[in-house]
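>> received
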Amino acid sequence: MEKLWNGNYCKVMVANFSLFFAFYVLTPLLPLYLSEHFGATKDVIGLVLSGYTVTTLIIRPFSGYVVDSFSRKKVLMLCFGTFSVFFAGYLAASTLLLFMIVRTLHGGPFGALTVSNSTVAIDVLPSSRRTEGIGYYGLSNNLAMALAPTIGIFVYRLTQNFELLFWLALIVACIGWLVDASVKLPARETQKNKTKLSLDRFFLVRGWLLGLNMVAFGFSFGVLSNYLAIYGKEVLGITGGTGTYFMLCSVGLILSRLQGGKALRKGRLTHNASEGVVISLIGYTLFIAAPGWLGYYGSALLIGLGNGHMWPAFQNMTINVAHNNQRGTANSTILISWDIGMGLGILLGGIISELMGYAAAFWTVVAVNAAGVACFFLATKAFFLRRNLNATVH
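>> returned
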């Protein structure tokens, strides 16, 4: 059997950890920074921070096309370098307007970088271990998501210095850039000007139902992740538990990668996806149906475990319905679908909470997630099996 943990794959994993660490180390503290440093109100803070997501969503379809059409190493280096430099922009932003411009523009290289780095990870994996390798690749995201916010909050409490956090993010991002710079990619023919421009160069039309299904799952996590803290505090009386919740969610994600690795090695993508979507649905239902400590923290483990099974399975399924010269487009498609779902969740979750309360918003999450699960079993699973281009994957 071909070696999974080759040097290039390990380097890409480290670089992926670095980029997500740099991102997440600032995420929980930026609202506080904007409030204390610029005196921004809650609605202004939401406006400033949402620009990042909008730009990421806009750039991703084009980044998939660019990654497939030009030298992946050059695209990766440019994206990672630009992503890193923007952290210096936070240090230089002396007004709220400048900070908003920097933050909004920063979403562009982040969106392109996540697509290009994950596509490079696929390139350096041996074909016989690709399905398993993509599953493990997500571990680097999960570790960063678990460690970075905790470290960021610890550093701030210790120093009360936001500038130090911006420097930390900048240095870690630069380390990731240097690690990726040493990756050796296999030779490939670029597709520049070889194919006529069409929608399929920006969004994988062959995988449209997989993307649509992912929107439902992204919606659920969008509502949960953004309204979790305020629901816990105002409705359940749980204060300061958000960090613990996401830590448990990350533990579930990591356990799912370890427990589901065997199924991925055998190419049992629909098996992993089936387990994942059902476990996630149980987690979201537990969260709202059993209000209290057990439902709150128990749902974190279940949602992490479910998403950890579901996400790499859906990513692999999307890649397996794409042709080899569309790997970047396949990666951007699944990320775009998740982003659209997250964005709709944040928007509609707030509206429903304002009109009918948080309980109604979270029951909507259960309903949308259940619709996504039904869609998977009734249509998406068969859709994938009909269009699968890899006979060894099922």
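>> Residues 130-159 form the longest helix (30 residues).
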